[in-house]
Inverse folding.
């Protein structure tokens, strides 16, 4: 059987970089993006890595489209690596859309792919260092809502737990990515007996079109970059290398965890906050 990999958000940025790595190790690459033009431009490049490239245009919040995607993958072969990079950032939409795309969309994709999991399946879902920075302020009621991401009242439960703060797209983004991290831990338990693995990866400040948009509109991003120990942004290629490792046999005993790829930024920000608290 052919080994079929999937990359979402494959039209540009981190998703494209991940798609390139998966295309080099798979028989078939299903490249997914909601932007048909960007995806079409990426296909010739992806085709140069050896895999047969199957472009699929869809929105990850469309449950029926994801079911059709899973059926298509089943017909093509065995599910191998999955890099789920599709998502939106705080400056791109309101809090409801951020939560729906970044958490609900991830949960819908995991649900659709679960019947395909077999020995060698390995998925990486993109989270964010924002979820790590938010961990100290975790709310039990909010976590309970995040742990049921496909519930129809998810947004109402979060609003009840966190109040008006959740209406800040930046807060919603951090909560959504925290939900992704928690989803991965639960899913690893279900996939393990079938030989499948799933992890999340939390990028820090990454030089992509989406990342540059965040820098332009959020002054705090510059402060975080100044405190990043490596004193630079990361690249899409550096993130893709971590995804490629997590999807490879070299990571065959890694499942249910989050890998923070942020140049040390989270550690530095937490140390700074701790120091300010000590001074108070």
């Amino acid at each position: 059987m052919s080994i079929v990999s999937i990359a979402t958000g494959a039209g540009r940025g981190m998703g494209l970089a991940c798609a390139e790595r998966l295309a080099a190790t798979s028989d078939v690459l299903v490249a997914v993006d909601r932007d048909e033009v960007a995806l079409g431009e990426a296909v010739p490049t992806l085709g140069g890595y050896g895999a047969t490239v199957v472009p699929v245009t869809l929105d990850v919040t469309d449950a029926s489209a994801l079911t059709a995607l899973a059926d298509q993958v089943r017909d093509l072969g065995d599910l191998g690596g999955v890099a789920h990079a599709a998502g939106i950032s705080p400056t791109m939409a309101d809090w409801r859309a951020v939560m729906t795309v970044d958490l609900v969309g991830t949960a819908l994709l995991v649900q659709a792919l679960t019947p395909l999991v077999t020995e060698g399946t390995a998925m990486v879902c993109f989270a964010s260092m924002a979820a790590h920075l938010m961990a100290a302020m975790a709310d039990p009621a909010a976590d309970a809502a995040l742990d049921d991401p496909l519930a129809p009242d998810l947004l109402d439960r979060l609003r009840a737990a966190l109040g008006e703060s959740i209406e800040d797209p930046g807060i919603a983004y951090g909560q959504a990515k925290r939900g992704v991290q928690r989803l991965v831990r639960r899913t690893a338990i279900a996939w393990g007996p079938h030989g499948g693995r799933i992890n999340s990866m939390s990028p820090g400040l990454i030089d992509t079109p989406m990342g540059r948009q965040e820098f332009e509109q959020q002054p705090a991003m510059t402060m975080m970059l100044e405190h990043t120990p490596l004193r630079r942004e990361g690249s899409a290629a550096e993130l893709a290398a971590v995804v490629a490792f997590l999807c490879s046999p070299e990571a065959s005993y890694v499942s249910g965890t989050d890998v923070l790829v942020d140049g040390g930024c989270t550690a530095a920000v937490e140390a700074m906050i701790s120091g300010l608290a000590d001074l108070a």
Notes: The chain has a mean pLDDT of 93. The chain is about 50% helix and 15% strand. The longest helix spans residues 169-191.
